[in-house]
Amino acid sequence: MNFRTLNALLWGNSVALAWMWGLGLFFSVQITFMFGLQGLVLFAIPNALGLVLFGWLTQIVARRHPGGSDSLAIFFERFSRPFRLIFYLYQVVALTLTVFALTKYLFVPLGFVSGPMAPLVLGMVVFVVLAAGCLFGEEFGIRRIKAGHAILGTILAVCVAVILLHLDPLVPTTIPWQAGDQDAWAGPGLASFAIPLLVGLLVGPWLDLQHWQRAIQIHRENTSVRASYLIGGLIFLLLLLFHGCLAAWVIAKSGAGPIGSSGLDGFRYAHDLVVSFIDRLDADSKGLLPVAYFTFLAICTLTTLDSGYVALKWFLGQNVSKSQNVLIGMLPKRILDSPIPTFLLVALLTIAGLFAGLELEYYMVFYASFFVGYAALAVARCFVPNSQQPLPQIRMFSLASISLVIFAFGYFTGAGMLMMLGSLMPIVHVAWLVFNTDLLRVVSAKAEEMIGAASEIPAIRAITRTAHAVRATSVSAPEAADPHAVAGHFEGKWFVYSFIATYQDTNSVGNVYFGMYPLYVGKARELFFNAAMPEFDLKTTRFYILTRSFEHKYVREAREFDLITVKIRVADFNRKFCTLEHQIFGSDNELLGKGRQSLLFVSSKDYSLLDIPSEAHQAFMPYL
User: Fold this and answer.
1) How far apart are CA 406 and CA 415, in angstroms?
2) pLDDT (tens digit, 9 = 90+) per residue, 197-212?
3) Interhelix angle 273-280/289-320, nearest 10 degrees
4) Structurally, how many domains does the chain consist of?
5) What does the pLDDT read at residue 333?
6) CA 192, CA 196: separation in Å to the nearest integer?
7) In a domain, 473, yes or no
8) Is residue 127 domain-resident?
9) Is residue 450 part of a domain?
C-alpha cells in the first residue's frame, strides 16, 4: 500500500468519525423505531452519499483553480466570505445538537442527572463533555487529527466487534422491514420525511467547516479528496447501518411493551432505547456490552467535538484578523479567535434545551429547512459562473426563516406537505436566483458584444464621430457644482477620478490614443492609494506595491475635451496578491472600457515577495 492510499484511508476514517455527530448517531435509532429498517435505509444512504458527493465535487473545484496544493484553500478563502456567519451558526447548532443528544440520551437514562443536585450535575456533565473535545482538539490539530482518529477508530472497531458478539441471535428473525407498531410514533409518516432527508443530507456537508478544512488539508497532502471521502462515506454508511440495526435488534428483543417516552409535541421518542435496554439487563447478561456500547457513543461524540474545535480555531483565526468592525477591534484577539467562547455558548444552549425538554428533532429542523438554501447556493457558487455576484443576504435569511417556520408547523401538525414545502422552497429560490442572475449576465455580455460590433460599421462610426465633435464644443470646463474633487472621491466602494481629455491625449485621427487609458487607470490608482493610505511614505515604508498583471478591454473611443471618469476598487485578494478592477466612462456616462490588475507586495530592502502587509490589508478592506 503506497502513501497516498494509506493517507486516503486514514482521512476517510477521520471523515466518517467526524460526521457521526448527534444527528447520525442517535437519529439512526429514532428513525428505526419510527419506520423500521426502511426508515434507516432512507436516512443512511443519502447521508453517506452527501459525503461522497462533497469529496467528489471539491476535487473538481481544486483542479479547476490555480494554486497547486493550495488551490482549494485559496478558493475557500474567497468563496466563504459571504457565508461566514452561516458557517459559524451551522457549527454552533451542530455542536449543540451533539452535546445535547449525548447528555439527554446517555447520561439522563443512566441516572447521572437526577435528585436535588440535578442542575449542578447537568452543568458538570455538559462541561466535561465539551472540555474533552477542547482537550483533544488542542492536542492534535488538523495535521495530526487523522492519527488520533485512527487510534480511536481502532478502539471503535473493537467495540463494534464486542457488541456483535453479545447479540444472540445476531440477526433475530423478528426484525421487521417496517416498524412493528405503526402507531407507536404517532407523528408524521415516512413520506413526510423523504424529501427533507434527501435534500438536507445531500447538501449538508457544504456548510460544515470540518469538511472544508479536511478537504483543504487532504489536497495539501497531495492525496485524493475524492478517494478519501469515498472511503469515509462507506465507513460512515456501515456505522449508521450498524447502529440502526442494533436498535432494531433491541426493539425485537424488548417484546410488546411500550418503548420510549412522550415528548412536548405528543409524539413518542426512543433515541435512548439501546441505552435503556442495556441498563435494564441483569449483571450476568451485561458482560462487556455496556462498556463497549458506551465507549462507542463516547468516541463518536468526541471525534465530532475535537473536529469542531479544530475547525472553529482555523476559521475564527482566518476571519477575526481581517475584520474591520470597531467593536471587534476593542476586544482581545486571543479571545475572539479562540473556540472557547463558542464552546461556552454551546454549553448554555445545551443546558437551556435540556431544561426546556426539547428533543433532537427540534435542532434537526434547521438542517432540513433553514440551512438548505445556503448550502444549495454554496454548491451553485462552486460551479455556476456567477460567483462574483453579491449574496442577497436579506432575501436569503428571510426565506430561510420562513422555510423553518413552515417546516416546523408541518412537523408539529403532521402535515407532510408543509414539511416538504419547507425543504423545497429554499432549493427553488436558489435555482431561480442563480438562473436569473446568470441570465442577466449573459444578456449584458451579448449586448456589450453587439454594441462593440455595431461601432465598427462605417456609417455608425461617422455618426458617433459627429456626435463627439458636437459634444466637444460644449464642454470647456467642469461646472462649479461638479462633485469630483481634484484628488478624486469615493462613491461607495469605488474610488472615482474625473478629468478632461486634451490634445496631448489624442492621436492623428482625433480620438484618445489607446495607450492613454492605462495611464488614466494608473493615475487613478495612485490617487486611490493616497486616499486609502495617507500615511504611506516611500522613505520609511517596509514594502512596495508592484503590478503583477494588467488587462483592459476597449469598448468605445473618447475624443478631445471629453469628460473622462475612472472608477477603481478592490475586487479580490488572497494571502499574496490583491486584485483591482476599473471602469472608464465618457461624457455621457457611456462605458469606454474596463479591466483588472493584480498587485503584489515586496520588501523594500531586498524585493522579496511578502504576504499582503497588515497596513495595506486594513486600508483596502473597506473597499472590497
Assistant:
1) 10
2) 999 999 999 999 999 9
3) 150
4) 2
5) 67
6) 8
7) no
8) yes
9) no
Domain final position from 383, 414, 439: 439
**How deeply is 571 buried, as exposed, middle or buried, from its count of CB atoms within 10 A (0-12, 13-18, 19+)?**
middle
The CATH number that applies at residue 317 is: 1.20.1730.10
Residue 385 confidence (pLDDT): 61
Task: Confirm if 44 and 288 have CB atoms less than 8 A apart.
Answer: no
Q: What is the pLDDT of residues 180-190, one digit of tens each?
A: 677 788 889 99
| Domain extent for 583 | 478-623
One domain, residues 39 and 181: yes
230 with 52: CB under 8 angstroms? yes
Q: What is the pLDDT of residues 7-58, one digit of tens each?
A: 999 999 999 999 998 778 899 999 999 998 999 999 999 999 999 999 999 9
Q: Look at phi and psi of residue 492 and say left if phi exceeds 0, alpha if psi is from -120 to 50, else beta.
A: left
pTM: 0.71
pLDDT at residue 215, as a whole number: 96
pLDDT of 295-315, one tens digit each?
Answer: 999 999 999 999 999 999 999
Question: Which residues contact residue 276 at a Cβ distance below 8 angstroms, ignoring those fewer than 6 apart?
Answer: 109
Same domain for 340 and 421: yes
Residue 360, number of CB atoms within 10 A of its CB: 22
CB-based contact 321:331 (threshold 8 Å): no
Cell numbers placing 275: 441505552
The domain spanning residue 542 has which CATH number? 3.10.129.10
DSSP-H helix ranges across 333-457: 333-336, 340-356, 360-365, 372-383, 393-413, 416-454
**79 found inside a domain:** yes
Co-location of 413 and 517 in the same domain: no
Q: Distance (Å, rounded) from C-alpha 286 to C-alpha 304?
A: 28
DSSP SS3 for 65? coil
- What does the block give as the cell for 581? 478592477
Distance CA 309, CA 136 (A): 9
Q: Are residues 494 and 358 in the same domain?
A: no
